[in-house]
Amino acid sequence: MKRFPVQVFPALCLTVLLLVPACLLVSCGDKAPDIPLPETSVLVHRDSIALVSVEYARMHREPSIDSPVMVHSRFGDILSVSERTPDERWLYLVAARREGWVYRDDVALYMSDAQAQSARRQLRRPGER
């Protein structure tokens, strides 16, 4: 078994005694500030594109069936999801000249526009073969 030379041991001890507290002080400092990240579907694992899967999807002013209908989206329309209710039963959808709250069951969700476009090509109307 090799032994350290007597001169090396005190230097090694001194180095350890100085480095360990220094590392602890640096790592236990103030936390780094929180960096806000954008809510993209990739980061939050949410689908952000909606494809209307019913004949006409009613777009409401508020996320409620009793809220006034502002406009309709048609079967096969593709819209962006910009908001959700906490229970995710209502989605705020946005397109060129229309926006509003749509009930979640009236749309199919996708992570990208390309996926929604592909699904639209294969989409069949309710009752259609």
Overview of this protein structure:
The protein is of the alpha+beta class and 129 residues long. It has a domain at 41-122: SH3 Domains (SH3 type barrels). Helix content is 26%, strand content 28%. The chain has a 5-stranded antiparallel beta sheet with strand order 6-5-4-1-7. The longest helix is centred in the first third of the chain and has 20 residues, at 8-27. The radius of gyration is 29 Å and the shape is elongated. The termini are far apart. The model has no long low-confidence stretch (mean pLDDT 82). Residues 1-32 form the signal peptide. Keywords: Signal. This is SH3 domain-containing protein.
Topology:
Blueprint: H1 8-27, H2 41-44, E1 49-52, E2 56-60, E3 69-74, E4 78-84, E5 90-94, E6 99-103, E7 107-110, H3 113-122
Antiparallel strand pairs: 1-4, 1-7, 2-3, 4-5, 5-6
Protein name: SH3 domain-containing protein
Keywords: Signal
Signal peptide: 1-32
Offer a few descriptive terms.
7 strands, SH3 type barrels, five-stranded antiparallel beta sheet, elongated, alpha+beta, two-stranded antiparallel ribbon, 3 helices, 129 residues
The fold-level CATH name of the domain at 41-122 is SH3 type barrels
Write down the CATH class of the domain at 41-122: Mainly Beta
Mean pLDDT: 82
Radius of gyration: 29 Å
Beta fraction of the residues? 25-35%
Strand segment tally: 7
What is the helix tally?
A: 3
Strand order across the biggest sheet?
6-5-4-1-7
**At CATH's second level, what is the architecture of the domain at 41-122?**
Roll
Relative helix content: 25-40%
SSE sequence, one letter per element: HHEEEEEEEH
Major sheet details: 5 strands, antiparallel
CATH superfamily membership of the domain at 41-122:
SH3 Domains
Alpha-beta classification? alpha+beta
* Measured distance between first and last alpha carbons: 82 Å
Indicate the low-confidence ranges by residue numbers: none
Q: Note the overall shape.
A: elongated
